[in-house]
Amino acid sequence: MLSTGFSQSASFIYKVKLTDKGNSVYTTSKPSDFLSAKSIERRLLQQIPVNESDLPVNPGYIKSIEASGAKVIYSSKWLNLLIISVDNRLIADAIADKPFVRNIIPADYLIKQNRVSSKKPFFDIERLDKHVLRSGSKRTRSSKELNYGASLNQAQMIKVDQLHEQGFLGNGMTIAVIDAGFNSANVLAAFDSLFTNGQILGTRDFVQPGNDVYNTSISTHGMMVLSTMGGYLPGQLIGTAPKASYYLLRSEDAGSEYLMEEYYWVNAAEYADSVGVDIINSSLGYTEFDNPDENHVYGDMDGNTAVVTIGADMAASKGILVVNSAGNSGNDPWLYIGAPADGDSVFTIGAVNPDGQYAFFSSIGPTADGRIKPDVSAQGVSTIVATIPSGVGGSNGTSFSSPVMAGAAACLWQANPSFSNIELMNAIKMSGSQSSNPDNYKGWGIPDLMLAGNLLTSSQIQQEESFSKLTVFPIPFTDHLSVEVVSSSKLIADIKIISTIGETVAELIGVELNKGKNMIGFNQLDKLRNGLYMLQISDGYFVITEKVVK
């Protein structure tokens, strides 16, 4: 994580790549030291083991480098990387000789002052409707109890309004919004319900640590992005996930464009993972910078090169659905999607107009290695967003089609909680309007969230669920654990207790279950460490899980 702010008085900046995380005070056997219970639970539900990449950078290595006279100004556990400042190059030479340092590279270009960018092509938005839309200014039909006002079209287009009708509004889902600032979101009426109901779980600024992300001196971009998901102004704007919870994370400096912002993004994603978010929305992208020496080339858009893409794919490997805007370069010389939209595990969202037609500005694929991008598209022209000082207006950009889709995905995941992030993403893609013939403009097309839900259910098993009820007791357990399971038929099942690092610590293989209620017991569990586990029952097709605590 970003350790502290820094001054520009230091003479030299270096990137320090470390060899490992050996001999650390942190260990994968005690993930609760560095991951929240919700983060561990996400891994358990998706059967993702805790591994070395989850460990913080070895504090001993940091202490040794600081003792050499360097100041650590950045730290990333996923990259296993430090960025340091030193007063003279002799200090860097001494650090290079340390046995845990893989390499040390000059990086003065990362840290510059007083950069002002005239254009941020993956970040541009344009207000289409200059007027403020007031309640009743446009007559629309609503979905049952929700009055979407002018925002109805962006919800109806992907049929998330029908999920809302069924009661799936994002409850219990957590979304991290990685953006450039949330100017005035804490005082705007569109977000009153989020604050009243405690749905803003936290904020953090990785560009200026300790800064207020609601400060009026920073960008409104994140505020508008948030409004397409969490906004709630009946008759004007209903976001696609109004009952989800949110972390608001600033990684982008809207006043300039420099490569360090990719590193800040990785820090934000690491933090989002550690606190247990389910979904990241990132309406950001990187291609060219104020300093031409930092520029990416199209060949970098291969899913493996850009720092931010490496971080985004790492977040996806932790079970997070990473939703990212395709970019707004479709009518610019760059043309193509940028990073991290090029990630193979990143859910990249293009833009269409209110009629579902490709938006001319939406960045296109393929990636440099030939993969189709974007993955799907949603409304990014005249998208209804919150505005300052109050009310709503229409804006355009993939910056808004992305969160429209991210919020909708949260509702779909709420309705289908047993599936992984990748299964969810694939179901949404296969529900797209052009899934039989995807292209590099709209991807798999405009999703149908109701169809995606049906695809998830049918892909699980084309018959009645094997298990209809699972009860585990006592909680917490000590030396024994009783399991009551209701089976739909006579079948053979495997029952496992899985640790937070994905290790099977106890199992019963080939258990015969009769139709109806069955009682099974685990004994001699006294040697297990205290902590969180997942009990899993599977017949080879259907899987049911339950959290257990010792």
Task: Summarize, please.
This protein has helices at 37-45, 59-67, 89-96, 152-156, 160-165, 192-196, 221-230, 260-275, 307-317, 398-415, 421-430, 449-460; strands at residues 12-18, 71-76, 81-86, 101-106, 126-127, 174-179, 200-205, 232-233, 237-238, 245-250, 279-282, 321-325, 347-352, 376-379, 383-386, 392-396, 467-473, 481-487, 491-498, 504-513, 516-522, 532-538, 543-549. It has 550 residues and is of the alpha/beta class.
Key words describing this protein structure:
four-stranded antiparallel beta sheet, 3 domains, 22% helix, Alpha-Beta Plaits, Rossmann fold, Immunoglobulin-like, seven-stranded parallel beta sheet, 550 residues, alpha/beta, 12 helices
Structure description:
- By secondary structure, the chain is an alpha/beta fold.
- It folds into three domains: 12-110, Alpha-Beta Plaits (2-Layer Sandwich); 126-135 and 167-417, Peptidase S8/S53 domain (Rossmann fold); 467-549, Immunoglobulin-like.
- It is built from twelve helices and 23 strands.
- The strands form six sheets. A seven-stranded parallel beta sheet has the order 7-10-6-11-12-13-14, sandwiched between helices. A four-stranded antiparallel beta sheet has the order 2-3-1-4, sandwiched between helices.
- Strand 22 (532-538) and strand 23 (543-549) form a beta hairpin.
- The chain is globular.
The counted number of beta strands is: 23
Could you report the average pLDDT, rounded to the nearest whole number? Answer: 90
Helix content: 10-25%
The CATH superfamily title of the largest domain: Peptidase S8/S53 domain
So how many helices? Answer: 12
Q: What is the overall silhouette? A: globular
What CATH first level of the largest domain would be assigned? Alpha Beta
Tell me the fraction of residues in β-strands, as a range: 15-25%
Number of domains: 3
CATH-defined fold name of the largest domain: Rossmann fold
Largest sheet: 7 strands, parallel
In the CATH hierarchy, what is the architecture of the largest domain at level 2?
3-Layer(aba) Sandwich
Which blocks of ≥5 consecutive residues have pLDDT under 50?
A: 1-10, 114-119, 121-143
- What Rg, in angstroms, do the CA atoms define? 24 Å
Strand line-up of the largest beta sheet:
7-10-6-11-12-13-14
Report the span from N to C terminus. Answer: 31 Å
